[in-house]
Amino acid sequence: MKKALIIVDVQNDFCEGGALAVPGASEIIPYINLLMEENEYDQVVLTQDWHPVGHKSFASSNGRNVGESIILNGVPQFMWPDHCIQGTFGAEFHKDLNQNKVTHIIQKGKNLEIDSYSGFQDNNHFMKTGLDDFLKYHDIQLVEIVGLAMDYCVKFTALDAVASGYVTCLHFNGTRAVNVKPDNGRDAIYEMIEKGVTVLG
Predict the structure, then answer these.
(1) How close are the terminal C-alpha atoms of the chain, in Å?
(2) What pLDDT shows up at residue 87?
(3) 43 phi, psi to nearest 5 deg
(4) How are beta strands 75-78 and 2-8 bridged, if at all?
(5) Half-sphere exposure of 29 (CA within 13 A, CB side)
(6) Contacts of 189 (CB under 8 A, 6+ apart)
(7) Active site residues
(8) How many CA atoms lie within 13 A of 27 on its CB side?
(9) 183 CB contacts (<8 Å, ≥6 apart)?
(10) What is the largest CA-CA distance in the chain?
(11) Which residue, 42, 94, 154, 175, shows the most beta carbons closer than 10 Å to its own?
C-alpha cells in the first residue's frame, strides 16, 4: 500500500510570533522531521495557505473584528487576522521544517472570495486544489496527516481524505489546535474518529 505524508500549513504566520500563532506550534516540527527520517513515504506533500491581499476571510477586509463570523458565499466564515499573504515571510514554511523529502506543494486559499481550510478543496466545495488528483496519479492509498491547525485545516484535510477514499491517519503528536473555544481541539479529534480517521499517539 503506497502512502503519503501530508504536512498541513507549517508556516511562519501559524507559528510563535506569527499573525495567527497556534499555541505550541513549533513543538511539532521535530516530530514531523523525525517521521520523514524514520519512515519511507512514497510522497511527502506540503499544503500552504496562500492568500491574496484583502482575502475575504480577513476581518480587515470586511470591517469586522477578529473572532466575529459572517456568511461568505453561503457558508459561515470565521473572521481571521490577515495571515499567510502571498509572497510574505508569514506565508513561508518554517525554517526548521526539513523539506528535503518534499515531493509536492499544494497552495490553497488563493481565491479572494472563498476560504480553503482543506488541502483538497475550498470551503464551498466548488474548486479542487489538485491534491486528490496528485495522490491518485501516484497510486497513494494511505495518507498520514500532521500540521496546523488541528481544529481547522488539519481536520478538514483529514475529513476530505476519508471522503476521497484514502485510509487516513492523524499523528496526534504532529499537530496543535487553535482552540478559539477551549474544547475545539478535543471536539475535532472526536469528529475525525467518528468519520473514520485513525488517530495515532
Answers:
(1) 21
(2) 97
(3) -145, 145
(4) unpaired
(5) 18
(6) 150, 170, 172, 199
(7) 9, 108, 153
(8) 11
(9) none
(10) 49
(11) 154
> Own/partner pairs for 86-90, CB < 8 Å, 24+ apart?
86/50, 86/51, 86/52, 86/53, 86/110, 89/12, 90/11, 90/12, 90/13, 90/18, 90/19
Distance CA 58, CA 30 (A): 30
Q: Which residue has the cell 474518529?
A: 193
Name which of 194, 174, 188, 56 is nearest 122 in CA terms: 56
Contacts (Cβ under 8 Å, ≥6 apart) of 69:
76, 77, 78, 79
The amino acid at residue 83 is H
DSSP labels for 114-161? Answer: ----SSSB-TTS--B-SHHHHHHHTTEEEEEEEEE-IIIIIHHHHHHH
* CA–CA distance, 122 with 116 (Å, rounded to integer): 4
Over residues 19-78, the pLDDT tens digits come to 999 999 999 999 999 999 999 999 999 999 999 999 999 999 999 999 999 999 899 999
Cis peptide before 149 (omega within 30 of 0): yes
Domains of the chain: 3-51+91-199 (3.40.50.850)
Are the C-beta atoms of residues 154 and 120 closer than 8 Å to each other?
no
